[in-house]
Amino acid sequence: MEGGVDYLIDERKKAQFDVEAMKVAWAGSRQAFELSDRIAKLVANDPIFEKFSRPMLGRKELFKNSLRKVAHAWKLIIDLRLSEEEAKLLRHYIDEPAYTDLQWEMFIPAIEGQGTEEQKRKWLPLARKMQVIGSYAQTELGHGSNVQGLETTATFDPQTDEFVIHSPTLTSSKWWPGGTAKVSTHAIVYARLILDGQFHGVHGFIVQLRNLENHTPLPGITVGDIGMKFGNGAYNTMDNGVIRFNHVHIPRNQMLMRVSQVTREGKFVQSDVPRQLLYGTMVYVRQKIVADASKALSRAVCIATRYSAVRRQFGSRNGGPEIQVIDYKTQQSRLFPLLASAYAFRFVGEWLKWLYTDVKQRLEANDFSTLPEAHACTAGLKSLTTSATADGIEECRKLCGGHGYLVSSGIPELFATYVPACTFEGDNVVMMLQVARFLVKTVSELGYKQPVGTTAYMRRVTALMQSNCAVRTAEEWLNPGVVVEAFEARSTRMAVACGQRLAKFENPEEGFAELSADLVEASLAHCQVIVVSKFVEKLQQEIPGKGVKRLLEVLFYVYALFLLHKHQGDFLATGYLTPKQASLANDQLRILYSKVRPNAIALVDSFNHTDHLLSSILGRYDGNVYPKLYEAAFNDPFNDSDIADGIHQYVQPMLRQELHSAKL
Ligand SMILES: CCCCC/C=C\C/C=C\C/C=C\C/C=C\C/C=C\CC/C=C/C(=O)SCCNC(=O)CCNC(=O)[C@H](O)C(C)(C)COP(=O)(O)OP(=O)(O)OC[C@H]1O[C@@H](n2cnc3c(N)ncnc32)[C@H](O)[C@@H]1OP(=O)(O)O
Ligand SMILES: Cc1cc2nc3c(=O)[nH]c(=O)nc-3n(C[C@H](O)[C@H](O)[C@H](O)COP(=O)(O)OP(=O)(O)OC[C@H]3O[C@@H](n4cnc5c(N)ncnc54)[C@H](O)[C@@H]3O)c2cc1C
Questions:
Q1: How many of the other CB atoms lie within 10 Å of CB of 23?
Q2: Mean of the pLDDT values across residues 459-480?
Q3: Which residues lie closer than 8 Å to 138 by C-beta, 6 or more apart?
Q4: Which ligand is nearest to the CA of 148?
Q5: pTM of whole model > 0.95?
């Protein structure tokens, strides 16, 4: 058997559910499915969007090619009159980090969220037509996580009615802003506002960086690229920049003034809007990152699952075929929880999008009551989903054995592009510590204030602290109420225990720092409650299609019981479960894996990923892995000639024992 074509045809026949209906469930609605299917095919069939050769290109060529793709995409958007939603899908399927990510996901949202009506009227039409290109310049060489610690200054000059933007030290150089090194004409620069020698907090300012006619940096601005990043191709299509400001003057009306204003006289006016709204763009992007985690994880899982069905090792009898590696229980116990996680993250991402839309509408009406909850949810779920996705992609590489390490597997570039998501938009530990602040506050108020939203389960604090799990058989774990209650009890007990230990410290901040590792674990437990509960809520909805709901239920139990198994130390230490009950959960997990097994290929087909998006020989839809790997090896430019450069100069003299007289 040369290729794996026959294996995947057989695998697809085993499916016990309607794959087309599952595609709709994954996409969210029939309309969403049809839209994304159309755009995915548009990209896959356009040779300009080819990306298989990306890891072989040098930086300059890679970057130029990326600019070409963006220009071509923009032309398509105009020619085909694509909506904003379609344009965002186009960018997703082109699958190449570029300056437009910053333009559409940070620059424009920052103006929308933090600008006044007048500022929005001026800047948004220009940005939406790409007549100005903007980036988000917050992080500095010496300061990233601690936004209040930024050093760049914006000093008001009442003489000229301008702000003077300045980088007083080397460490205040802006460092990382994407799109900035070579492309953006403007940036939202976060800087310390100084009025009459007084510091008034960090604010955002629209600063022009380049001349719109000839693209040269404006006087007082030093700008460049920060250098090559992890992996070939990957995030190197993005021009992450360094900027140094030397007393750059901008008009007063270019400070984003929804949250606070500076008058013509240089007076600071604090409105009723909470200062945290200055961080609103990050909340928006964190929510987007959660919604996108399932896309990245599902790609890796699709590759690893298809390849695991094609790949055979051991067990051949009488010259018959070896065993498909997907049939090994160990392979299943590593792969199927990731498959289930992709679905879990998809549904929690959908919910978070809804939550964000709701908060945004409230903020527009000056209702800020749900902001702390939205911040905690976006920060915590960003941390949970990106960490699990980054680890999951690496696990998928290992699940593909040696071939997973080949660039042509598609996994190395996916990993290299994805991992910074654990760091950007808030380091994942720093984000979990934000959740911890929210949880500690919630727990400390339990006696007199009813927790709401995602912490509402803590209203039952007494029951969750005192009652124990009633499961007696593996079968009894197949009950969503039982599973959710176990997660809620473990989370409540961990949060309350942290609260009790914190109360022993005289200085709460000192206590928080001392217990921060435990607080991060309690925050993770709370975020897992959210993911598990939102999966259950999804299952309570009507989900059409033969067998679709049943398979999603199986995936729910795989996700939840796998987490329970992985974190059984917490469940046991908090006393909610007995070792016997934890062991029964693990027994049930093995049974669930055998229910996933015949459906595995159909479940990854349901992601509807094109071969273009996967860009992976191992994950090809047709499973024709070996002939294509062989073909790709000989198509590699390194194999253009049998004698590589340097062989005659450095190897032959060694073979001939003539190295001493060779010119090196
Ligand atoms: C080939 C494969 C392709 C796969 C794709 C690969 C990857 C892409 C993956 C996903 C992409 C998807 C979409 C993204 C789209 C576009 C974006 C493109 C690229 C992104 C590039 C990255 C950009 C950046 O990184 S921008 C910089 C981000 N920086 C940070 O996040 C800094 C983090 N730090 C902070 O947020 C704050 O400093 C802090 C840690 C929160 C602390 O702030 P501080 O003011 O000191 O506050 P505290 O004193 O701690 O708290 C005061 C009070 O305020 C509350 N608070 C804090 N923050 C918020 C908030 N945002 N909203 C509301 N409230 C907030 C806090 O809880 C506290 O409340 P309390 O007083 O009640 O306790
Ligand atoms: C690919 C990429 C693109 C980016 N794009 C942009 C952009 O467009 N615009 C922009 O402004 N920025 C951008 N950034 C910067 C990014 O937002 C920061 O790197 C990120 O916020 C983390 O900050 P840091 O680098 O200062 O990490 P640090 O805070 O220095 O983290 C270092 C370590 O310290 C730990 N740590 C820090 N603080 C605490 C604490 N309080 N308690 C416990 N542990 C702590 C962290 O967990 C981490 O382990 C980008 C970064 C990357 C990697």
A1: 20
A2: 97
A3: 147, 150, 174, 177, 188, 190
A4: 1
A5: yes
Residues noted as catalytic: 425
**Of ligand 1's atoms, which has the minimum distance to the CA of residue 280?**
61
Going by C-alpha positions, the residue among 285, 391, 299 that lies closest to residue 613 is 299
- pLDDT > 90 fraction of the chain, expressed in percent and rounded: 94
Is there a binding annotation on residue 113?
no
- Residue 553's nearest CA partner among 525, 595, 590 is 595
424 lines ligand 1 (CB under 6 A): yes
pLDDT digits (tens, 9 = 90+) for 565-597: 999 999 999 999 999 999 999 999 999 999 999
Average pLDDT in the chain: 96
Which residues neighbour 467 within 8 Å (Cβ) at sequence distance 6 or greater? Answer: 489
Question: Is residue 139 part of an annotated ligand binding site?
Answer: yes
Instruction: Give whole-number Cα distances, 166 to 173, 174, 249, 527, 640, in Å.
Output: 9, 11, 9, 40, 52
Ligand 1 near 211 CB (within 6 A) = no
**DSSP H helical segments within 106-160, as ranges?**
108-114, 117-128
Would you say residue 7 has pLDDT above 80? no
Q: Over range 511-517, report the average pLDDT.
A: 98
Q: Are strands 241-245 and 174-175 parallel, antiparallel or unpaired?
A: antiparallel
CA angle 392, 396, 400 (to 5 degrees): 170
Ligand nearest to the CA of 425: 1
- The helix (H) or strand (E) run that includes residue 262 is strand 260-262
For ligand 1, atom 52, the nearest C-alpha belongs to 276
Give me the pLDDT at residue 6, please. 63
Distances 336 to 13, 75, 302, 393 between C-alpha atoms, Å = 19, 41, 11, 13
Name residue 157's amino acid: D
Per-residue confidence (pLDDT) for residue 5, from 0 to 100: 57
Q: What is the pLDDT of residue 2?
A: 47
Decide: 621 and 309 in contact? Cβ < 8 Å: no
The rounded distance, in Å, linking the Cα atoms of 641 and 460 is 72
What distance lies between CA 266 and its chain's CA centroid? 41
Whether the per-residue pLDDT at 192 is higher than 70: the answer is yes
Token pair listed for 216: 């040269």
Residue 529 tokens, joined: 């409650």
Least Cα distance to 552 among 508, 612, 592 occurs for 592
Give the chain's length.
Answer: 664
Greatest alpha-carbon span in the chain: 92
* C-alpha distances in Å from residue 94, one per residue of 34, 348, 353, 541, 660: 17, 24, 22, 33, 53
Distance CA 541, CA 25 (A): 11
Amino acid at 43: V
Interval between CA 587 and ligand 2 midpoint (Å) = 41
CB of 418 shorter than 6 A to ligand 1: yes
